[in-house]
Automatic annotation (TrEMBL), chain A:
Residues 8-408 form the Aconitase/3-isopropylmalate dehydratase large subunit alpha/beta/alpha domain. Keywords: 4Fe-4S, Amino-acid biosynthesis, Branched-chain amino acid biosynthesis, Iron, Iron-sulfur, Leucine biosynthesis, Lyase, Metal-binding. This is 3-isopropylmalate dehydratase large subunit. [4Fe-4S] cluster binds at residues 297, 357, 360. Binds 1 [4Fe-4S] cluster per subunit. The keyword Lyase applies. The lineage of its organism: Bacteria, Bacillati, Bacillota, Clostridia, Lachnospirales.
TrEMBL record, chain B:
Pathway: Amino-acid biosynthesis; L-leucine biosynthesis; L-leucine from 3-methyl-2-oxobutanoate: step 2/4. Catalyzes the isomerization between 2-isopropylmalate and 3-isopropylmalate, via the formation of 2-isopropylmaleate. It holds the Pfam family Aconitase. It comes from the Bacteria. This is 3-isopropylmalate dehydratase large subunit.
From TrEMBL, chain C:
Catalyzes the isomerization between 2-isopropylmalate and 3-isopropylmalate, via the formation of 2-isopropylmaleate. Gene3D superfamilies: Aconitase, domain 4. One of its GO terms (biological process) is L-leucine biosynthetic process. It comes from Pseudobutyrivibrio ruminis DSM 9787. Its EC number is 4.2.1.33. Keywords: Amino-acid biosynthesis, Branched-chain amino acid biosynthesis, Leucine biosynthesis, Lyase. This is 3-isopropylmalate dehydratase small subunit. Pathway: Amino-acid biosynthesis; L-leucine biosynthesis; L-leucine from 3-methyl-2-oxobutanoate: step 2/4.
């Protein structure tokens, strides 16, 4: 019987065929631990009584949520991470380089076919290069640090096929929001999502990242793209037969198949306070906003900043509205400096912060107050995520966000 | 009898021919600056007034700079209060445009003005020959409502500057040396006036740095005579002086210091007092966790150039966080154009949006228990930059950047 | 598994996310004890102080959706909650709860039929009885039971490392 992509990735790793429902133990290629979870993972690791980290070179520590530090205890997380890295010979430590999920592929760690776990739910992002990756808690992470392994249940797969050419003001963010709206926030729980079709084939890896990143918002275990030549360019590897084999069989069995025509897509928003509360931007047109946030592991990449810059060039953010731009990584920040993007954004009145999670994780970067409205390009609009429970959070594409910033009210690009 | 510059500005603001130190004068303010440190409190008091009114809304300048972007629902709520009030009353309002004093220098301050700021470092405006002084929010509110206030005319301590600073020595070394010499209360209630041919060689950035820090010696204000350098700065920023004042030849000073700029050395102010000033070499080797280049004291383009030159082609030491925070959007954009931001980013620094950052110690890079910061900020008080048990050393942009590269306190000449 | 117990019911809704269970602001506290007062605070600020040891939470679909923060199940456990009964769980929360020894029960009907303050009688692996009605509950897969029975993943690993 044919295999889906996730069945192939897991099967390759364990050395035999697997099918949905199988519980298998896998060797883990990459462990990502972010700054919030470092002290907790370390504590559990020590409680478990391990004397060494099984594969120190597979471990990557990334400080991103607490940068810049806003509370006096934040830097303790960096300190304990540094001490742990030193003690157990972990060389991969990113202290101020950007968001973990951006760095795990950008800095050359995760490659097609790899299996990666991270202490953050958006670890699903690495599906953009055809890797199986998912979020786990710090106790399981501690177990992997010690053993190099983790058990997983092979998931069923939902196939999502998108064909055709997107309208000019529609981005991959609008597509994934629409899909989450259709699947609902729990519609893919325990399952893998496979994104296919000519529309995603035409997408940049950055656009695909936006979609794999948000697969978890439908509850998915992972969100996968078939690696292609673009993936290989991005990962700086050869597009050889082993990579070409990383694709689903024609007769693979799916739990569900959703088909979309790109031409039918419109710019959408996730409305407060659920990620699956999706409405066309046109329905919300005119809603006054206090702030716009462009950034996060979902939409803080160079193409996102460029999209916003194209719209904001020669214009200005509306009076009394703040636009906060937080590039996803140091590399992106520098590229956006070099190509003039940041200058355009700054001329337009945007507040450009240092790379990191920023507002998305609710520890700084533009927290809001009662009855304020924010249009944001990140992945979650949960109650209280960006301030008080009375903050209204709308999730949108960078294009919608930029057009909204200029108008001071929700606007289609 | 001759008058000092401070006396002349106050006399003008009081509508008088003259006044002298020790007099209490009722003055009309030219400008009133307030930031997000305290404006929400001012608004609360304003709303409790029986007959709330603003005497002259055109004189008000409000700036959100301390916690921008907001880091908590509490700061977000005070920002909202300030934003809504400014919008309703038509108050000149900046959010995210930079540190208030830098924004004031770039856009508002004119020679001869008398300015109240609800922030102690308002004395910076003396660099353009304006009398700026910090007030609390009650004084601010009174001035906002009536347009006036009372002032005790200060005595003046005069510093005559001679010669030139050596290479690798900066205005910041000079003013910290002076504070170390006269102590943290050496100029209480007084004006500190800087003059002499040594002044003319100092850039506006240097002058702001000097005046800004005078409050750390307790001064009510700091003043410098307006010369060609200051006039050029004004012209470049599209402004004219209100009036040009200088101390008379026979003005009476409480004290006069003559300072030979060539004798100034790179210094460091040790925790936890601004006047704990020692030669930088005495602290050589002290390990640091964080370095900060920025603030209303030292976050201007000239300071970033100094830092960039030190760090170009080098890298921040492993485990050290190096915050680079341009003092305003104007500075940010200029640094971007000159390639300085990229030099810092390439070297592993964290370039941040213009704001008060860790100088204020609230939301942008606070330090933890037992950690050490070397900073171009204004203060090194205990707990100022974060945890109550942490350490702040103050130094010049060059020394701070060199220390960021090494991971311990050192001076740029040793790199 | 453990014996029958009774529990007072607190009812929450669908999609109770991890930011509701414990907002990011409090994640950096050193101990779960310090986090406890803030559990569920965006939704119900007083709930954490009202929950008594032994109480149970009943919720709708997708309980624990959102981030992978393990502080979420840990803080629920620390409040003394004996078990959570929901229509479904988000997968990371599910794993984290098991790894911390917090009992999760899946049931489709209970949520629609009980109200806050009702008393439930729970027999793990078998049934829940509320207001005289019995709700059948399934047993967990073996590999998860092993972890639960060891008292969580830390204890399972200690055993493996020959410490306990």
């Amino acid at each position: 019987m044919g295999k889906t992509l996730v069945e192939k990735i897991i099967g390759n790793k364990v050395g035999h065929d697997v099918k949905p429902g199988d519980i298998v133990t896998v060797d883990v290629d990459w462990c990502m631990i972010d700054d919030i979870m470092v002290p907790f993972a370390v504590q559990k690791f020590e409680e478990m009584g391990f004397s060494k980290v099984k594969n120190p070179d597979s471990v990557v520590l990334i400080y991103d949520h607490f940068l810049p530090a806003t509370q006096v205890d934040d830097t303790r997380h960096f300190r304990e991470g540094d001490e742990f890295a030193k003690k157990y010979g972990i060389k991969n430590v990113h202290r101020t380089d950007g968001i973990c999920h951006q760095l795990m592929t950008e800095a050359g760690y995760v490659k097609p076919g790899d299996i990666a776990f991270g202490t953050d739910s958006h670890t699903v992002t690495y599906g953009c290069v055809g890797a199986f990756s998912t979020g786990i808690g710090y106790t399981e992470m501690a177990g992997i640090l010690g053993t190099g392994q983790l058990w997983i249940k092979v998931p069923e797969t939902i196939k999502i096929e998108i064909d055709g050419t997107l309208p000019g003001n529609v981005t991959s963010k609008d597509i994934i929001l629409r899909i989450i709206g259709d699947l609902t926030a729990s519609g893919a729980t325990y399952q893998a999502i496979e994104f296919t079709g000519s529309t995603v084939e035409a997408m940049s890896v950055a656009s695909r990242m936006t979609m794999s990143n948000m697969a978890v918002e439908a509850g998915a275990k992972c969100g996968l793209f078939v690696p292609d030549d673009k993936t290989c360019d991005y990962c700086k590897i050869q597009y050889d037969d082993s990579i070409k084999a990383l694709k689903p069989d024609n007769d693979a069995k799916y739990s569900r198949i959703l088909r979309y025509r790109a031409e039918d897509m419109v710019p959408v928003l996730a409305c407060p306070s659920l990620v699956d509360n999706i409405h066309p931007v046109s329905e919300l047109k005119g809603t006054k906003v206090d702030q716009v946030f462009l950034g996060s592991c979902t939409n803080g990449r160079l193409e996102d900043l460029r999209t916003a810059a194209t719209i904001l060039k020669g214009k200005h953010v509306a009076p009394f509205v703040k636009m906060i731009v937080t590039p996803a990584s140091r590399k992106i920040y520098r590229e956006a400096l070099a190509d003039g993007t940041l200058e355009i954004l700054s001329d337009a009145g945007a507040i450009i912060t240092t790379p990191g999670c920023g507002l998305c994780c609710g520890r700084g970067g533009g927290i809001l107050s009662d009855n304020e409205v924010v249009v944001a390009t990140n992945n979650r609009n949960f109650l209280g995520r960006m301030g008080t429970s009375k903050v209204q959070i709308y999730l949108a594409s960078p294009a919608t966000a930029a057009a909204t910033a200029i108008a001071g009210k929700i606007t289609e690009a | 009898m001759g008058m000092t510059m401070a006396e002349k500005i106050i006399a003008a603001a009081a509508g008088k021919e003259s006044c002298k130190a020790g007099d209490i004068e009722t003055v009309t303010l030219d400008r009133l600056m307030s930031n997000d440190g305290t404006t929400h409190l001012t608004i609360d008091m304003y709303n409790n007034l029986k007959h709330p009114r603003i005497a002259d809304v055109d004189k008000l300048v409000w700036v959100i700079d301390h916690n921008i972007p907001a880091d908590s629902p509490k700061t977000a709520a005070s920002h909202k209060k300030m934003r809504d009030f400014a919008r309703e009353h038509g108050i000149t309002f900046y959010e995210g445009e930079g540190v208030c004093h830098q924004v004031m220098m770039e856009k508002h301050v004119r020679p001869g003005e008398l300015i109240f700021g609800a922030d102690s470092h308002t004395c910076a405006y003396g660099a353009l020959g304006a009398f700026g002084t910090g007030v609390g929010c009650t004084d601010y509110l009174y001035a906002m409502v009536t347009g006036t206030s009372w002032l005790l005319v200060p005595e003046t301590i005069r510093f005559n500057l001679h010669g030139k600073l050596n290479k690798g020595v900066y205005a910041r070394d000079l003013i910290l040396t002076i504070i170390g010499r006269i102590s943290a209360n050496g100029a209480n209630y007084k004006a500190m006036e800087f003059a002499g041919e040594g002044l003319h060689d100092l850039s506006i950035a240097d002058r702001i740095s000097i005046c800004n820090l005078c409050v750390e010696a307790g001064a009510k204000t700091a003043l410098m005579e307006v010369d060609d350098v200051a006039m050029e700065y004004l012209k470049a920023h599209g402004r004219e002086p209100k009036a040009l004042f200088a101390s008379d030849e026979d003005a009476v000073f409480a004290k006069v210091f003559d300072i030979d700029l060539s004798e100034i050395q790179p210094i460091v102010a040790k925790p936890h007092f601004v006047d704990s000033v020692v030669p930088a070499s005495e602290c050589e080797g002290t390990k640091i966790n964080e370095a900060f280049l920025g603030s209303c004291n030292n976050g201007r383009i000239e300071d970033l150039r100094v830092g960039a030159e030190v760090i170009k082609g080098k890298h921040v030491a492993e485990g050290v966080r190096f915050l680079v925070v341009p003092a305003s959007r104007e500075v940010y954009k200029q640094a971007l154009k000159e390639g300085l931001l990229d030099i810092f980013m390439a070297a592993g620094a964290m370039v941040m949006n213009p704001n008060c950052s860790v100088c204020w110690g609230a939301c942008q890079g606070v330090i933890g228990e037992g950690e050490t910061l070397i900073s171009t900020g204004t203060r090194n008080f205990k707990g100022r930059a974060g945890h109550k048990d942490s350490y702040v050393y103050l130094a010049s942009a060059a020394t701070v950047t060199a220390s960021a590269v090494e991971g311990f306190i050192t001076t740029a000449d040793k790199l | 598994m453990s014996d029958k117990f009774t529990a007072r019911i607190w009812v929450l809704g669908d999609d109770i996310d991890t930011d509701i269970i414990l907002p990011t602001e409090y994640l950096a506290f050193k101990t779960v004890e310090e986090m406890k007062p803030y559990a569920f605070s965006p939704l119900r600020p007083n709930l954490a102080s009202q929950i008594q040891p032994g109480d149970m939470i009943v919720a709708g679909n997708n309980f624990g959706c959102g981030s992978s923060r393990e502080q979420a199940p840990e803080v629920v456990k620390a409040l003394g909650v004996s078990c959570v009964v929901a229509k479904s769980y988000a997968r990371i929360f599910f794993r984290n709860a098991i790894n911390n020894g917090l009992l999760l029960i899946e049931n489709q009907d209970l949520y629609d039929e009980v109200k806050e303050g009702d008393i439930a009688e729970v027999t793990p692996g078998k049934e829940i009885v509320v207001n005289g009605k019995s709700y059948e509950i399934a047993s967990l897969p073996d590999n998860l039971l092993e972890i639960l029975e060891a008292g969580g993943l830390v204890k399972a690993m200690r055993k493996r490392n020959g410490l306990d």
